[in-house]
Amino acid sequence: MELTIKKAGMLTSVQDLGRWGYQSSGVPVAGAMDLPALKLGNAMLGNPEGAAALEVTLLGPEIEIKGGGAAVFAGADLGFSVNGRAVGSWRAVVLQDGDIITFTGPKGAGCRGCLCFAGGVDVPVVMNSRTTYMRAKIGGLDGRALKSGDVIKVGEPATLWRRLEGFRLPAELNPAVTAEEPLAIITGLQQDAFTEEGRKLLFASEYLITAESDRMGCRLEGPKIEHSDKGADIVSDGIPLGAVQIPGHGMPIIMLADRQTTGGYTKIGVLTPLSVEALVQKMPGMKVRFREAGLSEGEAEQRKIAEAVKRVNTLRLSYVSRSQQVSSPPLSGRFKITLNGKTYEITCEEI
Fold it and tell me: What CA dihedral angle connects 247, 249, 250 and 251, to 10 degrees?
């Protein structure tokens, strides 16, 4: 299948789980902003959880389909539609030659998501990843956001993709937290670089997301966090996803997908995985609050995401192999199974 970009949208780029293993050479991880959404969207289609997708921001693209395939929009409801018919988020749709994908705009909370295709977006692999790091023009499609006229190939879909029509993500398997909940911070080794009053103020205050926020980081405005006599500068060290940096001006900056590899500002802690997901769905002008969390909470959230992906894979297999399906195409395909160390090639066809 091929995708022809008729309109690019506000900011649409190819993203996967990121470019890991090159931070020591100064290459950022980048990748999708909403990682749980990417993983779950891929699981719904039978892709590896790190398959590349199109990350859509606020106002989505218009895309013409050549060939056939299946897709899921995973993330906020941005009005995902096919041929003018609303599909919405977290629902698989089978695409036919000539179909037109459009987005009508945000339908509620949230501003981004991943448009996943069965087989994954197929662009050249650069340093073991297809992700786009636009600041350095690395990966994706020529290292940039998509533009009108671009043509993108999609990889070979998983067997039985034609039977995915209508498959939905159960609400209980969507790990996203509500927009109103405070973001959880696991405090770190540098918390002693702040006064006790400064630490208390962070967790007692409300902050505004500024217009300077982007894929690199979320800049906040609000009460100034006071540093201890150790000051705001440190010997540069690694920056994880969700790190809460507080430079000398006292305003928090939360580091996101396109964060630099190292930095010399003090970090009071790091957001938990689901708090990162909640933050990347917020837009400038919105407000956030924080609460303190322990390491065990972050670990539990990672397990919750992994278990949801595993469960979705099981539900998908059950869905496509069900015995009755209205107006379904013939059940056919080829795949391999390994039993007791021996691999068998299987061909199935409904007659």
Answer: -90
